[in-house]
Amino acid sequence: MVAALARRVTTLRRASGVHRDKSRGALAVVASVVLLAPVASAQTAAPLKGSLEAFYSLPSLIGTAPRTPTWSPDGARLAFTWNEEGTPFGDLYMVNAAGGAPTRLTRVPHAPLVANPGPAWADQRAAIAAELDQGVQAPLWTPDGQRIVFSYKGDLYVVAPGRDAVRLTSTPQAKRAAAFQPGTTRLAYLRDGDVWASTLTGDALAAPERLTALARDGVGVEGFKWSADGRTLAIVEQDRTQIKTRLIGDPLTDEASAVNVKRAMPGEPSELRRVGLVGAAGGEVRWIDLGPDHFDIIHAMAWSPTGATLAIDKSDVFVKDRHVVLVDGASGAVRELVREQEPLNVTAEWDVQWAPDGKGLYFTSDRETDYHVWYVSTGGGAPRAITRGPFAVFGFQVTPRGLFVTSNEGRPEERQLLRVPLAGGLGLRVTSGGGTHTAVASGDGARVADLFSNDTTPPDLYMADAAITKPSDAPERRVTSSPRADFARYRWAHTRYVTFPSRKDGVTLHGRILLPADYDPSRRYPVIVGSAYSNTVRNQWGGRNAHPVWGLDQLLTERGYVVFAVDVAGSAGHGTAFRRRIRLDYGGVDVEDLHSGVEYLVAQRIADPARIGIWGSSYGGLLTTMSLFTKPGVYKAGVAGAPATNVWHALTGEQRVMGRPQDHPAEFASASSHTKAAGMQDHLMLIHGLRDVVVLWRDSAWLTQYLLQMGKDVELVTLPDAPHGWDTESLAQTRYAFAKMLAFFDRHLRP
Fold first, then answer.
1. Closest CA to 704 of 738, 680, 739, 736
2. What CA dihedral angle connects 126, 132, 135 and 140, to 10 degrees?
3. Do residues 429 and 380 touch, judged by C-beta distance below 8 A?
4. Coil, helix or strand for 503?
């Protein structure tokens, strides 16, 4: 009976008044346990206690997540990269859609992992390089579906099942974004800022041909797309010559040095882009007139099924003025199909794809209540909604069998896949199990490859029949099993999803609570709010999995903390109006949202109000520092990783929220937490890498000096080899930084 319940899938309707199965939340939990729980041997031994060494060493306790699932042209086979031993280096695997276990296709030679490299600096650096080697990248099926081209360390290889991989290129210049010319075995790729092409014959590539001659200092081709008939390439040229060069220090060289990095700040010129067309044989580029502002962003390009017309989705850098245009491939003439002007917009989760018959375009837009799929005829006229309802769309794929739409209908913290008719209407849920499904449909729409995880299940690859006609026919087949056997011996934290009102404007906020495995509702617990950021309330392994905090969170709950995340203003999946609350208000309404969550936990008698901590990285570091600086006494301690404390020094992408500092100087001052630092009364730790080019280390150095001059309790942990992702590089560095955090919170928050 439980298995039957687990296979039950809810049919969804797009219109207002969508039918909801009130039991679906419970069924989703059952499904995730029965169908999708990690395969591990049953253990009767005592549960294991976590440690930084156990959670952040190799082979990984949670295994290695499969990556880049890629369907063969006929949809009969699926290629993906994976490491079944639980180490980062990915080899190429293949599985038949009809059934059977995956087959390993490659064993690419690479430097072995060394657990104890010894004290020599060179040996330690070599060990770190081996640990960070991700292995095989970007699998690409040949047009006949018999072989797979892939990239490794900048060169191209080809492999067929049952045969050894053959190296196709051996040059110092890296090749990327490889794509076959439709109808041929001619392979185009980017190299040194230009498009090159070579014909694949057997296991050899012919001498490369240079199709464009645009590359020069600061200028080069950013991307390209073949037309469906293979006659034309659409290219995007990027020009960074106007961007200022800034020096980033490097203390690990024999002599102290600095690296020149082109990096624009808000209000400064950013990249210039233009779109051009070039024939399959190369030669002169025909540039398309898309208007006078070459700072515009190209969000998407798509050729029509005949190859005659190119659709381009573009906007200004502030994402306030969007144009979807059609370009005639023969004449270069441009015709506008859709224009959206919205001065309050702050996000651009936009895409455009052709209908299979070439008579219209599907595109995502939040012109009403949230992001949904819309359709517009190439003949013009008003767009019409394909999906509609109190949920959000996070991506879609067009196939002859319908649109495959990722949405959070029913449960805001989940991501499920729906199959929606091309004309709109009834949507059928294809994925099963409560959690996050990142799915790719085969070209014919018959099958789906699904990277799935949830709060208790690390990521693995599944496969589903997408051609189902009723929900009960949709059980998923597990392809990989990544966690090690010991994974089942840990008592993982309990997860609870809650809602509560904002203390600022009363809107409904969403939270994710991690409770200790032995949680006692009669006690009040110290609480860690974090990692603070937008889009943190997700039913997926690790919550906000941009950082490897699954182990850190588990260690915190084992120590007796409650870990709490809030979807602050600007987060996706809660409506257009909810996202736009953040406009011109970094460090304002979002900080109030976090405070609202703290008040909720205190009112629920979960949190001890005297022992609240907070942490976050990047924008989350801004939230952490601003919370300590403007709300003394609410948080006793905070850890800010790579904190964006100076919004004047942010990337130009933040102009979507903040505009230009020349136009909004007061808002930039208000959003920069260093301007409020004098208000700090509690305890702060900063963690920052010297190699960070996204948030400058100098901002943390300046803030540390300023705070210590005022006699504040501040600590600066400097990681000399860390970029912006300071906890996503070597595991030794991750363990070191997380140990500092744990000791800091224990010092200030535990009894």
1. 680
2. -140
3. no
4. coil
Phi first, then psi: give them for residue 197, nearest 5 degrees: -145, 145
Q: Sign of dihedral through CA atoms 614, 619, 625, 629?
A: negative
Q: So what's the pLDDT on residue 425?
A: 86
Confidence label for 409 from pLDDT (cuts 50, 70 and 90): very high
For helices 619-630 and 589-603, the axis angle rounded to 10 degrees is 70
% helix, strand, coil for the chain, step of 5: 20, 35, 45
List, in sequence order, the alpha helices (H) in 346-420: none
Q: CA 625, CA 657: separation in Å to the nearest integer?
A: 19
Report the SS3 class of residue 125.
helix
At residue 33 the predicted structure's pLDDT band, cuts being 50, 70 and 90, is very low
Q: Which residues contact 431 (CB under 8 A, 6 or more apart)?
A: 416, 417, 437, 439, 448, 450, 452, 464, 474, 476
pLDDT value for 19: 30
**Phi, psi of 287, rounded to the nearest 5 degrees:** -80, 140
Radius of gyration, alpha carbons of the chain: 26
**Nearest CA to 394 among 530, 255, 538, 261?**
538
At 713, list the tokens. Answer: 């309790």
Q: Which residue has the tokens 């070209």?
A: 443
89-128 burial, b if ≥16 CB within 10 A, otherwise e? bbbbbbbebeeeebeebbebeeeebeeebeeeeeeeeebb
Which among 492, 434, 479 has a CA at the least distance from the CA of 39? 479
Assess whether the previous peptide bond of 172 is cis (omega < 30° from 0).
no
**Which residues is 404 bridged to in the sheet?**
397, 419
Write the CB contacts of 363 (distance below 8 Å, at least 6 apart in sequence).
313, 324, 338, 350, 351, 352, 353, 373, 374, 376, 383
Judged against a pLDDT cut of 80, whether residue 7 lies above it is answered with no
| 3-state per-residue secondary structure call for 380-400 | CCCCEECCCCCCCEEEEEEEC
pLDDT for 472 equals: 62
Residue 156 · residue 168 · CB < 8 Å: yes
Domain 490-749 has CATH 3.40.50.1820: yes
Q: Which of 255-259, 550-554, 579-583 has the lowest mean pLDDT?
A: 255-259
- Going by their DSSP bridges, the two strands 607-617 and 525-529 should be labelled as parallel
DSSP state of 635: B
The residues, ordered by sequence, that sit 6+ positions from 212 with a Cβ below 8 Å of its Cβ are 194, 195, 221, 235, 278, 282, 285
Phi-psi region of 666 (alpha: psi -120 to 50; beta: other; left: phi over 0): alpha
Find where tokens 């699998």 sit: 139
The whole-model pTM stands at: 0.92
- Per-domain boundaries in the chain: 1-35+399-489, 64-170, 490-749
Sheet holding 137-141, edge to edge: 137-141, 148-152, 155-159, 166-167
How many CB atoms sit inside 10 A of residue 608's CB? 18
How far is Cα 387 from Cα 13, in angstroms, rounded to an integer? 9
Closest listed residue to residue 492, CA positions, set 90, 181, 32: 32
pLDDT, residue 30, reads 27
List Cβ neighbours of 167 (8 Å cut-off, separation of 6 or more).
Answer: 155, 156, 157
Residue 24 has pLDDT above 80, yes or no: no
Torsion region of 543: left, alpha or beta (phi above 0 gives left; psi -120 to 50 gives alpha): left
